[in-house]
Amino acid sequence: MSICIKRGHSSVALWVAAVSVVLWPLAAWGHVESGQAGGFLSGLSHPVSGLDHVLAMVAVGLWGAQLGAPALWVLPVAFPMMMAFGGMLGLMGMPLPGVELGVALSAMVLGALVLGGIRLSLTAAVLVVAFFAVFHGHAHGTELQAGQNAMLYSLGFVIATGLLHALGIGIGLIQRWDLGRTLLRGAGGLVLAGGLYFFWGAVA
How many CB atoms lie within 10 A of CB 6? Predict the structure, then answer.
């Protein structure tokens, strides 16, 4: 158990370090074209602008922490990778049916997995998060504002997603205590409830 916790801390530390390195040049971007800086900042803020996105991305971290290594770090890597793919589809204007439903379903399914403490194989877990990541990425990609740099916009929303995963992992570390495991599953229930709310809004 202590090994898993140590690995969890290491994964969070790696995320923080990677994000810090990427964000380090941000101050220098004040001298580049506004579309480039705006594209990055817009992408960075976009994932946190919708609660449905936030719930699902935090839930990936919660579930990864619940499953332990190697899912603890594999899931938060797989999700942004496939989200970037979905974002590319959105930027190219390629249609993807049921994007809003997919985003809402992601919160429902991931929340239910955390609530139930469901332990899938690593392959199955990766497939679950990768499938839903495409919908999240497509939603981000289609909302790129005119005149903004698509690459920096994509980099921004991938970094923001990683930070939300790291937040979920950090919260998930409370499972080292008996009460923490109960609270973690309760957090999954909240994510599930939020997903149900957004799903109802998407089909109504």
Answer: 11
